[in-house]
Amino acid sequence: xxxxxxxxxxxxxxxxxxxxxxxxxxxxxxxxxxxxxxxxxxxxxxxxxxxxxxxxxxxxxxxxxxxxxxxxxxxxxxxxxxxxxxxxxxxxxxxxxxxxxxxxxxxxxxxxxxxxxxxxxxxxxxxxxxxxxxxxxxxxxxxxxxx
Length: 147
What we know:
By secondary structure, the chain is an all-alpha fold. It has helices at about 10-20, 25-30, 35-40, 50-65, 70-80, 85-115, 120-145. α1 packs across α2 (about 25-30), α2 (about 25-30) crosses α3 and α6 packs antiparallel against α7 (about 120-145).
């Protein structure tokens, strides 16, 4: 059975990286066994990844074709959320998410009319990624309100 990793946790970020580059490669990059890396990703285990290893894994993730640095994104988001007013933050995030989602839907509809246009498809992908990023910010804000 697969253990659940809560969204926007270091455990989930590590699991995302390992799914792309492999547990054994993660271990090799960090100078530990793949079992040690799996322990870092286990929310029930008391060992945690070191910052330098998180950076190494972010770099490897990007080098393997990943579109972002999972640990860097998570760390920046968590620090930013810690300094915000919860209600005002959520209202702003909701407005931004609505805007980004609308732009993504519009871009998708445009691909129907111009299905052979590579630039139209690229724009739709960009708009979808921006909408997903905005929704991820909302998810993080909701998680912070539970604490």
